[in-house]
Design brief:
OB fold (Dihydrolipoamide Acetyltransferase, E2P); rod-shaped; alpha+beta; about 350 residues; 4 domains; five-stranded antiparallel beta sheet; conserved putative lor/sdh protein from methanococcus maripaludis s2 fold; six-stranded antiparallel beta barrel; Elongation Factor Tu (Ef-tu), domain 3
Length: about 350
């Protein structure tokens, strides 16, 4: 009995082409009939250029809707009334603090109040002038205004700092007993109105030709993979970030449902449509080798050749070819790497 030998598909390619190397051009090969059912092609079509670019980015609070409360004096936190992430309302009590500087101001305020009362009595009895009364009143009002900058005066050197706006606490974790100084770089707390947020997308130098202000974008997150947030590029920075070497595209987003959270990582998809038409092929047909793009073209039934192409643009599904292909030609989209490898060896 004769033993039947089965060859892998790649060897079928070699057997089909190896016997006629002298008669075949180095860029073209005839594929065996046994392998042809495993080859799938797609026809080159002329399509309107539609580029799709995916950028990385993150969510940030809108600086115009954010209040950073830095220490104005030195002191200690007597009691904290919030935790990071809390939603707070304007006027809500945030911190009770004690400060030697504020205690001095309180003493000065008490003296100014007694001075005004005394001057008022003396003015009514004719022992003080109207000017002296005006000066005493002005001194008191100034001290009251100065103390109001630090919060609500609770006496005994204790002041309550209240929330200047409604929003969410996005920074601030100092607990009871913590000390602070007016020279601190770290704020006591930061409150942001997150009903509107910014998405800052990273634009590399190679992406600049495809990104411009006014473009519509789609934004996706890991937290909500099935939802696409839609926005528009409002501005594009003209200065590169010195560390990451990228420009920042700012997208102002309505966030009334509070799904987008500061520091959240996002993917930003930019679509660019033009009036130009180019030969279009499935992106899977492209082979990147030696810093160039190639495709395998079926020149006739069972005959294939390698073609170098210049890519004009692409999206997730289609690639647009500036040079190397014509409408109506066929490119291999399945097992093209096997054919390409065999042709390269010839």
């Amino acid at each position: 009995m004769t033993k039947k030998t089965t060859y892998p598909l790649f060897l079928l390619l070699l057997f089909a082409c190896g016997n006629n190397t002298e008669n075949q051009p180095t860029t073209e090969s005839v594929i065996s009939d046994a392998f042809l059912p495993n080859v799938q092609t797609a026809q080159v079509e002329s399509r309107q250029l539609q580029q799709e670019l995916t950028l990385t980015g993150r969510v940030t609070a809108d600086p115009g809707r954010t209040i950073i409360h830095s220490p104005l004096v030195s002191g200690v936190i007597v009691q904290s009334h919030f935790t990071l992430g809390d939603r707070v309302r304007r006027g809500q009590r945030m911190l009770d603090i004690r400060s030697a500087e504020l205690s001095e101001l309180q003493s000065e305020l008490a003296i100014a109040q007694r001075t005004l009362q005394s001057t008022q009595s003396m003015f009514e009895s004719g022992m003080a002038t109207e000017l002296e009364l005006v000066e005493a009143r002005a001194t008191l009002e100034k001290l009251q205004a100065d103390l109001a900058l630090f919060g609500e005066n609770r006496g005994n050197g204790v002041f309550s700092i209240t929330a200047p706006i409604s929003g969410y606490v996005i920074e601030g974790e100092r607990g009871t007993g913590s000390t602070f100084s007016e020279e601190d770089d770290t704020p006591l707390f930061v409150i942001a109105d997150l009903s509107t947020v910014w998405v800052m997308a990273n634009v590399h130098a190679s992406d600049l030709p495809f990104v411009r202000e006014g473009m519509e974008v789609g934004i996706t997150t890991l937290s909500y993979p099935d939802r696409v947030f839609h926005g528009t590029i409002h501005s594009l920075s003209r200065v590169f970030d010195p560390e990451e070497r990228v420009l920042r595209a700012r997208i102002i987003m309505d966030n009334s449902d509070f799904k987008l959270i500061p520091e959240m990582f996002v993917l930003v998809t930019v679509k660019n449509r033009t009036a130009q038409h180019f030969p279009a092929i499935p992106s899977d047909a492209l082979i990147f080798d030696d810093n160039r793009h190639f495709v395998v073209v079926e020149t006739s039934h069972g005959n294939f050749e390698i073609r170098s192409v210049v890519v004009q643009g692409h999206n997730n599904y289609m690639s647009y070819i500036a040079e190397g292909l014509e409408e109506g030609e066929k490119v291999v989209v399945q097992n093209q790497l096997l054919i390409y490898a065999e042709l390269r060896q010839r």
